[in-house]
Design a protein that fits this description.
The mean pLDDT is 89. The protein has two domains: 9-172, YacF-like; 177-249, YacF-like domains (YacF-like, Sandwich). It is globular. The protein contains nine helices and eight strands. The protein has helices at residues 10-29, 34-50, 56-72, 82-101, 108-111, 114-123, 135-141, 145-156, 160-175; strands at residues 2-7, 180-184, 188-192, 200-205, 212-217, 221-229, 235-237, 242-249. With 251 residues, the chain is of the alpha+beta class. It has a four-stranded antiparallel sheet with strand order 1-4-8-2.
């Protein structure tokens, strides 16, 4: 099964982009080749570009507190598993406390490092990080993998509380929706949302269908059009019925 996600607002779009960068960063950080560690370091620079909004930290803290208060309201519900609820509340408290304890602007430690900033400036240029452009960086790339890993992990460490918080927020958002089986007749599906506000749409379909959803949505209507990849991967509209699962997520 393939899951496609569609954000309904810019805030969730930013969180999803950062989550995608975080997954890429973790993958390449745990590799050993210097080129793979170059990707990990370059991804930190991309993270700083996306996370440049000054209010991202406060937005996440407000959302974590809102989630905490919402979950506290379920304590008196006999149908709620008390142990699971307590575990989530403890996680919210832990992540919030760590984020509050993080000081300064996001990624300021990287911005204050002139050597890293010189690398960042060159990586913007295609092929700009060659050995003749950045001999000191090339020398660092010759260090043992475990040393490079330690350096990159250390540069990322001040960013970790922010990413732990956004991953928790997105996880709770995904868990807030209930999947419903749908059918896109003749490859098209529409649903009126009647002004109800959602944060994210999740669409799950069988990989064997070779269908690709093109999603458009606002607070009034949701529209999905399925296509397939034709010659030279050009999208071709599907005319057959496409079964899928739809999950509308909202805090």
């Amino acid at each position: 099964m393939i899951v496609y996600e569609y954000p309904f607002n810019e805030r969730i779009r930013t969180l999803l982009r950062l989550e995608d960068l975080y997954e890429r960063f973790k993958f390449f950080l745990h590799q050993e080749h210097a080129m793979q560690h170059h990707v990990a370091l370059s991804t930190i620079f991309e993270m700083l570009e996306v996370a440049g909004r000054a209010d991202l930290k406060s937005d996440l803290l407000q959302e974590l507190e809102r989630q905490k208060q919402t979950l506290l309201g379920f304590r008196s519900n006999p149908n709620v598993q008390a142990e699971r609820l307590d575990a989530i509340l403890a996680e919210l408290d832990r992540v919030s406390a760590t984020l509050v304890a993080s000081h300064g602007k996001t990624g300021q430690n990287v911005r204050d490092n002139e050597w890293l900033m010189s690398i960042r400036g060159r990586t913007i240029i295609p092929g700009g990080a060659c050995e003749f452009d950045l001999p000191s960086y090339y020398a660092w790339q010759q260090h043992p993998p475990k040393d490079r890993f330690a350096d990159i992990a250390n540069w990322f460490a001040p960013l970790a509380p922010l990413f732990n918080a956004l991953c928790l927020v997105l996880r709770l958002l995904r868990e807030s929706g209930n999947p419903v089986k749908m059918i896109a007749h003749a490859g098209s599906y529409q649903q009126m949302l009647q002004g109800k506000v959602y944060q994210m749409l999740r669409l799950t379909l069988d990989e064997a269908l070779a269908a690709i959803p093109e999603i458009s949505a606002n607070k009034y209507m949701l529209w999905v059009r399925f296509t397939s990849q034709g010659g030279e991967f050009k999208p071709v509209a599907l005319e057959n019925d496409v079964p899928f699962e739809l999950t509308l997520c909202n805090f």
